[in-house]
Amino acid sequence: MSCLLQLLLTLKRSSRLLGKVGTFLAFLCLAEMQVAQAEGSRTLYPSGASGNRANIEWRDDTLNNGTLKRRTLLKVYANAGENILLGSSSVGTGQGDIHVFDPGRVTGAIGNETIPTTADFRCTTQRTALGNTNRGRILSRTVELAGPQSISGTGNTSGYVPCYYTAPITGVYSVVFLGPLLTEANTNGLINTLETGNNQGNSVAAWDVTVRSSDINSTQDFTGRLFTYYFSLFTGRNGRPLYFSIFPVTNDGYQYKLTLRGLDPYGFVLYGNQVGFFDSDGKTPLYRDLLGQDDKLSSPDGGVSFARPQFATFVNPPDTTTLASATRYDVNGNVIPGSIPIAPEPPNVSTLSFAGTVGQNTSIINQGGTFTFNSATTGNYELVISRDGVNFDPTNSNNRVLRGVMLSSGQQTVTWDGQDNSGNAFPVGSYPSRIKVHAGEYHFPMLDAENNAFGGPTIELLNAVNPLGNFQAFYDDRGYRTLSGAIVGTPGQILCSGMGATPSPTHSNPITGFDTRTNDRAYGVNRDAGTGAGKCAGSFGDTKGLDIWTYFPSNIESTPVNIINNPPANLRLVKRITALNNTTFTDVIDDPADPSDDGSRNWTANYLTGRTGRGITAADSVPVKPGDILEYTIYFLSDGGAAAQNVTLCDLIPSNTTFVPNTFNSNTPKDSGASTGDFGLRLTIDNSTVYLSNADDAPDRGRYYAPGTSAPCGNNGTPVIAPNGAVTVRLNTVPNATTRGTPNSFGFIRFRARVN
Predict the structure, then answer these.
(1) For residue range 401-412, what is the model confidence (pLDDT) as tens digits?
(2) H/E run at residue 16
(3) CA distance linking residue 569 with residue 213, whole number of Å
(4) Cβ atoms 314, 82 nearer than 8 A
(5) How far apart (Å, rounded) are the C-alpha atoms in residues 534 and 679?
(6) What is the DSSP string of 125-183?
(7) Cα–Cα distance between 417 and 401 in angstroms, integer?
């Protein structure tokens, strides 16, 4: 409720209370308007804040074998000419300093950036130049809360004296806070008793980055400008729960408020991304926890791995101009063109289909197939094949879930191996599949966060209405099977823990999630119990990366999946006129008279060239006159459930034509065993071609039968009289195609005839 509205409501009350109550509310409004709105530790820990303080770190050691360095690299947006005001509790003590780098100077992989050796601005250099030993120093809780004085010193005189850097260009600047020492901190972790000396070690207790106008007398703070892609934080020990809030924004514009609500780590990295952790293939979202060998989470079980920080995380609700300037990163740490949208992008999925090894919607047992669908946006997808047609739980061992990241919108392709989540083949039957796309997907990996006795964090979607609920999220703390088949923990049971409570239930509802305002995810102890001696020895969060995630779901699309036993062999035949008087026809015409033959998905694209001669389209007719030479091509494709065995093709010479016996006399190579007579047949299998003689001269595979003779052109090769002659070609065994271009599964025979 605004102050003005509060006063108006007061005026409607009894006049007898007007003076007393109205004056009190006016006082509240005045106090409210004077609350500092800057950017830094005073934002995370405002006056009256609960819990404890976590110092930001700048150190050289890493997590997960070098993926993440334990340091906090801050980003701040400023327009040219605006002033960036800076201060910390470590400036003036040991190596304590604040470095600022102009836009574009910090480069490299996110989480492990290359920091230039020379900063564009150093607070200690300005302190020396201006001769003020108090400049840039936050030495008490009082001045931390007050924020910076004006640069001139005339405004907000109860605040700290800031260092300041006038932005030379418009853009996003990088800010580094250095602690007084290179050693690990021995901080007290208290909000109101501020560490300002060497106990901060390589961390900083109080810090501030405030943007103001070019007016050196200004005390107006421009908020929503400060963000980071990851915080490295240190409390000094367990038993110091944290309650502060941050404001992450996804690449597609979904804004969240995340409140730790009692999370009790020791030293940890806080960040958000689209996938949490990767499965054993290094690209599929895991949607499970990571179990490391030590507190640095090295060599996780099952070959799973970290995904890098990805999303801009603000300390205040973000400024729209800053959103437009923040760099977007994909799940692999690559820069994405474009800016974060102000309004979130809604998801939509359409045209889900399944192509099995037999045909549309049908596959052979244990052979799988390919799903295709269209997504209006980038994001993650989740496709579930249900064993019983009712339960679509993606974690059910009898179902199969296929998940992935879409780096671009439009048509997507997903392959399936025919197996369920346990690695067993789906049996013969018909099964429904469903797909949905996740927009605004946000994962908050909690790295080596030993205790969480109060069940946080609370996650709230701020700028859209989630059909699942704006506080809903997901977690799964059970053991699992990776894509490689490795087992982490015991599937279906809680991951190992040495002391304290474990989450109950062990996982959220996998379809609807859970309300993050509850304590379902509570674990560990509410005290400093120390850490264990290694994996599975400490509190539940020790040596683990615990994932919690939320998303905005799309509509759901469905398609059936039919599984059958191996069908018999099948050979598809398509006949075309491919040339007239040596002029080749390159048309690609689908013949409605034989759609089952020329419509198979296993024909190589644009392979069936030529005309039918029946005038299916204007371009399909072949006008001829006596003496014209027609070239006939019979295409073949084996795409049944097994190889076609002992195949011989026989084709009757069309009526009113005469076979041309010497068409390929000058061509090479000739088939094995061919005579030296005329060659009127061509055989191409895959990309290999031979020319066949007309004589019955086995092992040459071709033969021409003169008009009026008996040729094996009836059903199953029974002899029939060929009034105009016939040609035969022995194909022998033709392997069955399981996809387009399966070697040696397709080809054609070719001959020519003269119009009588």
Answers:
(1) 999 999 999 999
(2) helix 15-34
(3) 78
(4) no
(5) 79
(6) HHHHHHT-TTTTB--SHHHHHH-BPPTTS-SSTTSB--EEEE-SSSEEEEEEEE-S-SS
(7) 11
Position 6 scores a pLDDT of: 29
Domain boundaries, the chain: 3-32, 54-236, 238-566, 567-755
Residue-wise pLDDT for 530-587, tens only, equals: 565 678 888 999 999 999 999 999 999 999 999 999 778 889 999 999 999 999 999 8
What per-residue confidence (pLDDT) applies to 672? 83
Residue 556 burial (CB count, 10 A) = 14
Run of H or E including 55: strand 55-63
Residue linked to tokens 């604040």: 98
Rounded alpha-carbon distances, angstroms, from residue 335 to 5, 174, 310, 328, 439: 45, 17, 10, 6, 19
Contacts of 346 (CB under 8 A, 6+ apart): 376, 377, 439, 552, 554
The 10s digit of each residue's pLDDT in 296-355 is 888 999 999 999 999 999 999 999 999 999 999 999 888 999 999 999 999 999 999 999
Bridge partners of residue 264, in order along the sequence: 451
Question: Which residue, among 379, 374, 371, has the nearest Cα to 410 in the 3D structure?
Answer: 374
| Residue 497, amino acid | S
Per-residue confidence (pLDDT) for residue 740, from 0 to 100: 86
Dihedral sign, Cα of residue 351, residue 371, residue 311, residue 255: positive
Interhelix angle 15-34/3-11, nearest 10 degrees: 170
Which range has the worst mean pLDDT, 31-40, 213-222, 526-535?
Answer: 31-40
Task: Take residue 596 and report the two structure tokens written for it.
Answer: 């089952």
205 pLDDT above the threshold of 80: yes
**Residue-level pLDDT at 694:** 94
- Category of 145 on φ-ψ map: left (φ > 0), alpha (ψ -120 to 50) or beta: alpha
| R_g of the chain, CA atoms, integer Å | 36
**How long, in residues, is the chain?**
756
Backbone angles phi, psi at 581, to 5 degrees: 50, 45
